[in-house]
Design a protein that fits this description.
The structure is a homodimer of 414-residue chains.
Chain A: H1 6-44, H2 52-66, H3 74-82, H4 92-105, H5 113-125, H6 127-130, H7 138-154, H8 157-166, E1 169-170, E2 172-174, H9 178-194, H10 212-246, H11 252-268, H12 277-283, H13 290-306, H14 313-327, H15 335-351, H16 354-365, H17 370-383, E3 394-395
Parallel strand pairs in A: 1-3
Helix pairs in contact in A: 1-4, 1-5, 1-7, 1-9, 2-4, 2-11, 3-7, 4-5, 5-7, 7-8, 7-9, 8-9, 8-16, 10-13, 10-14, 10-15, 10-17, 11-13, 12-14, 13-14, 14-15, 15-16, 15-17, 16-17
Chain lengths: 414, 414
């Protein structure tokens, strides 16, 4: 491989990433359109949420009896990057696609990046079989799949690239896969757009010139975002462990979780069901009360902890934007800026991917708020603790000298 | 240190980075103003260039007899990050400041980031002495100094942060110093702006929507930028080695180099003397002929190889912008976009800092050209070879499977 002439190296990865990009981008396009339809249908047929427990039972049975070895989802893809053992089953793609749509149709509070990453990862990994990709290149394929999935589902190719390079290690980044990851991200994003599928835009108003006082407020907001992410990760793992411990038969967990979620949705309102894009957009212009992000944290952790499918990221956008919006009641920063900061920073902190989120901020909100978003993301990342939402993430370095729980979960990469 | 409660960790680094930022930012402000005056004076007194050989002799004598241990400049700062041995002498700051101004007054073709990085590094490293910073934190101080210097001299805090984290390793990045580096960069940038010192803006016109064909052209341009950077690095090292080999007494090297440079400036024209900001700005609107970047490569490598001071980065901006501008004669991309791509990508490739340059592109040109700039930077970085302008940079990973010269210079970090 190292002797391969440069031109062949380029052509090889160009061909592979074109195919990965076309497949993953088209899958994301289909997924996004289907998700839109499913969401619109649920919004006009609100009583569907009463069927959420049954939908949960169905997903539970599906994964229990036919999803052998793919239930770990995102963590499986990340684990295979670290310790390649066997090719990610292609069946992961239709399973996660279908069960995410079911989750959203009946009002579970979940995201979509998990779905896109798993579809991208499963598709990309098939090249290990077909094209005789060397064993040492297999992790690059998985990174390409993650990059393609993330980039196309959010319309952010640079954030997708850096997310894929950042997510499997904590506290460092390696550039070995930089070129294939970037190509996969751009091709997938292009493929999704060629299908005519667009992405939500978020209205960030004029950004004030930065100064020391505003920096202080930004840092304070960043710390609050990080603590919210920490709380989310802890609650997510804790609820998942409760379900596993108290309900021995896995298919019954989403059934029980579904019953809880429906009861809570009846109290909180259906704006917390599904992706919640309208509430995210609203957070950029209207100050949200604290219960907006509080309910979303609880409902998302219940949904995912119980075994529904979809991922954490869009709910984390929701939680961050609503929390930022809420903070604008007490902080002298515009509501849209605080919402944008929270949108990026809570996710940065929960996934331990600060640079990807800074770039995502640039791609979604332009370069104006970039320094604010960067300060919020880095502070949030610092205080969110070592263990994020992806438990398969390995710690290359200690995150900081900041928390003394670092040694607890420490393991280094081989 | 790991037991230090979070609040103390924050306050400690807040205090340290505030001081580093204030000092390095103020030094950059003074330096930029002085550089402006010196450049304006030379432009109205063009015959000063005839004194360049004598100015070279003067700088050579200064460093030979009084600059013991600081002549390695940027590489000394980078080496101390890897193998801390002794504190960077504070005298490095006035030496590099003064000799850079002399270089520019008499028309040497050099930059300013080397100066800013060395001033920042030397200032920051003094904390190792004064504040009882633990030995294991000393490299963080040096990273803060680089970050502060780079951020304030170019007005790009995010690029400064990532540059400082990226520059000392090749092929990977570690986040240990992320928080202090970001704070130092923002504080230094703010300090420089508080002195009323602004930065050049570059006019990037409307950016076309990306598609596969334009991506192909962008990749081709990126490869050309990378090869230009490779040529620059090779010529730079080669000329430096020639001077060392053929002229035994170091102070005579810049004297001889000065004679050569003056002769060439008489042929090429004084637009290649100094920083060359007007030519960079012109490259964004008017297509440049090939000799523009050709002359600049030759004159900069002579200037720095002979022992004049200042750094490589602004000349690399010049070379990249002029080369991109030149390529717009044959590529279906706007001249300002190609100039912006070259501006970022040639530097990314020569310094092996692709992510810093993507962020610099965003900070200088906005988010519009970001994907173009990213593709150009990553391609350029890939093809520029393992050895960039900073020979002290260590290789954490092989850059790619692309070049088989990788094993030649390979050494891994401890």
């Amino acid at each position: 491989m190292r002797m391969l002439p440069p031109v062949l190296y380029f052509l090889k990865w160009l061909a592979i990433t074109l195919i990965i990009g076309a497949l993953a981008g088209s899958a994301s396009a289909f997924f996004l359109v289907a998700l839109d339809r499913v969401t619109a249908y649920r919004e006009t047929h609100e009583r569907l949420i009463f069927l959420l427990p049954l939908a949960g039972l169905f997903i539970g049975l599906l994964y229990h009896y036919f999803g052998n070895g793919i239930a770990k989802g995102n963590n499986l893809v990340i684990e295979e990057i670290h310790r390649p053992s066997r090719i990610v089953p292609l069946v992961m793609a239709p399973f996660i696609l279908f069960s995410t749509l079911v989750t959203h149709l009946f009002g579970g509070s979940a995201g979509r990046e998990g779905t896109a990453v798993q579809i991208g990862g499963a598709l990309a990994d098939q090249f290990s079989r077909w094209f005789g990709v060397a064993h040492r290149d297999r992790h690059i394929l998985l990174i390409c799949g993650i990059s393609a999935g993330f980039a196309s589902v959010f319309g952010t190719p640079l954030a997708g690239t850096v997310f894929a390079l950042e997510v499997f290690l904590l506290g460092s980044m390696r550039y070995q896969a930089l070129f294939p990851a970037l190509l996969s991200a751009i091709f997938a994003d292009q493929a999704c757009r060629l299908w005519g599928v667009g992405h939500t835009t978020y209205p960030v108003a004029a950004v004030p010139a930065i100064n020391i006082a505003l920096l202080g407020w930004t840092a304070a907001a960043g710390i609050i975002f990080g603590l919210a992410a920490r709380f989310f990760s802890v609650l997510n793992h804790w609820l998942g462990a409760r379900f596993s411990r108290h309900i021995g038969y896995p298919p019954l967990r989403p059934l029980a979780g579904g019953l809880l979620i429906v009861s809570l949705l009846l109290i909180a309102g259906t704006r917390y069901a599904g992706l919640g894009i309208p509430v995210i957009v609203e957070s950029f212009t209207r100050v949200q009360p604290p219960e907006t992000f509080g309910w979303k944290i609880l409902l998302t952790c219940l949904t995912l902890g119980a075994g529904f499918k979809g991922g954490e990221v869009t709910p984390l956008f929701f939680i961050g934007a609503a929390l930022g919006s809420c903070l604008s009641a007490v902080m002298p920063l515009p509501v849209s800026l605080l919402a944008a900061m929270g949108f990026a920073a809570v996710f940065a902190a929960a996934a331990n991917t600060p640079l990807a989120c800074i770039l995502m901020g640039v791609e979604l909100f332009g370069s104006g708020p970039a320094v604010y978003v960067a300060v919020a993301c880095v502070l949030a990342y610092l205080v969110s603790g070592q263990r994020g939402i992806y438990s398969a993430q390995q710690q290359k370095d200690f995150k900081t000298g900041l928390w003394n729980d670092v040694s607890a979960g420490a393991n280094t990469t081989p």
